[in-house]
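Revision sheet: structure tokens.
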Amino acid sequence: MDLKLSTSLQYGLSALGYLASNHHERPVMVREICRECGLPYDSTMKVMRQLTRARLVNAHRGSKGGFTLRASAGDISFLKIIEAIEGPIETGDRRDGSELQPICRSAIGVLNDARSAVEQVYGKLTLKELSSRK
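Predicted:
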């Protein structure tokens, strides 16, 4: 099983990191984010729409429009970012397992515990902490 960042998640983290690290008080256009982070425009715009729907960023219209963080970087969890772009974490098995052998039911319990642990770790890690790690 591979745990890796999808391309969309990389674009989203890069854009959010740019917004967070530059302490923009003005909306930042996607073209600026793409230029500064070396990201493709169309894919980044798609990710920014996902982040807007998830209420992690605000979209501002007009000639001086762009995006701003909806909350401080310390209040945006890695879990929220992942779920905004990739959907809910699907580690584990949500079946009740009643038709399975006891060992398989036990394995399902372990997988579900692992999903819960991952959600807990990702839920505590913030955009601010991610931005400050080297």
